[in-house]
Amino acid sequence: MLAKALELRDMGTFIAILAVDMNPSDEAERYLLRRCGYPCDQEPNIIITRLDGNGKATNDPYEWDGRTYPVAHHWIIEHWNQLSNGDVVDVEFILGEKPTKKVSERFA
Question: What pLDDT, on a 0 to 100 scale, did the predictor assign at position 100?
Fold first, then answer.
């Protein structure tokens, strides 16, 4: 499994999230993930939760309410291999509402 800490942003929103690709990195993980029903097919299967540990965790983008999490979750799945720790996932930019992506608050 590979985890990335990301900055989820939207209009007036900053959420530190943890995204984990639920594909195994060894046979022990493969066994446990398969027992949980994960396909382990090397396609991004991303579970997302808040980095502070509060709230929900799901690998289903359709399980979220509102717009921020579902839009971000779909985008993270589609762009998993291009993402690095600390990257900004900007929902307003993804939806074309803003012409440029927000800069991380750690640089502001």
Answer: 95
How do residues 36-75 score in pLDDT, each as one tens digit? Answer: 999 989 999 999 999 999 999 999 999 999 999 999 999 9
Tell me which amino acid residue 83 is: L
Dist. CA 50–CA 56, nearest whole Å:
8
Q: Which structure tokens are listed for 45? A: 């299967």
Rounded CA separation 53/100 (Å): 30
Distant-in-sequence, close-in-space partners of 91: CB < 8 Å, separation ≥ 6: 8, 9, 10, 11, 13, 67, 68, 71, 72
* Torsion of the alpha carbons at 15, 99, 58 and 17, rounded to the nearest 10: -30
Quick one: residue 4, left, alpha or beta (phi over 0 = left, psi -120 to 50 = alpha)? beta
For the question of whether the overall pTM of this predicted structure is more than 0.85, the answer is yes
Asked if 86 and 5 count as a contact pair (C-beta separation under 8 A), the reply is: yes
Q: Quote the DSSP letter at residue 18.
A: E
